[in-house]
Amino acid sequence: MSIAQMFLPELEQEIAGTRKVLERIPDDKLQWKAHPKSNTVQWVGSHLAEIPGWVEGTLTQDKWDFSPPDEPPYQTPMFDSHQAMVEELNKNAATAMRAIAAASDADFMKLWTLLFQGNEVFTMPRVAVIRGFVISHMIHHRAILTVYLRLLDVPVPALYGPSGDEEA
């Protein structure tokens, strides 16, 4: 089994779960946050929608500086509704799936570097970047959003099994 064949069903499952959570976001609560130090529902949902979009760049570029010296830093694009978030997620997921399907095992083993202001944050094989920086990162923020949903008294969807609100 190739690395792409391993990743595709896993990413598809995580995208489906993320879509279910994004669909539950109440548009009138986009500016809500659990704590003054927390991000808003809008930021977390928008970030979730963008994360799969990182796959193509990971597989086609050797590095990314998210805050290049003397340039504005990268900003998460903000979406004004849960529907816009779902549409962005779907677009980025399709691009990610195509990029993964087209990549060889050798492509996945090439090194990729994340930079901040020209300084290395980490360098690791692309396979590890996709697993940790994309898939696990998406799971992490999706979990935050499910807590937000619970605190807003919005039914939490079943993801890996039943939730307190829904059967699997």
- Name the CATH class: Mainly Alpha
By CATH, the architecture is named Up-down Bundle
Query: What's the tally of helices?
Result: 6
Give the rounded overall mean pLDDT.
97
Number of strands: 3
CA-based gyration radius: 17 Å
Report the major sheet: 3 strands, mixed
Give the uncertain stretches in residue-range form.
none
Q: Please identify the oligomeric state.
A: single chain
What's the order of the H and E elements? Answer: HHHEHHEEH
Tally of distinct domains: 1
Shape: globular
Could you name the CATH topology?
Four Helix Bundle (Hemerythrin (Met), subunit A)
Q: Which structural class best describes the helix and strand composition?
A: mainly alpha
| N- and C-termini, Cα separation | 29 Å
Report the helical percentage. 40-55%
- The CATH H-level superfamily is dinb family like domain
| β-strand amount | 5-15%
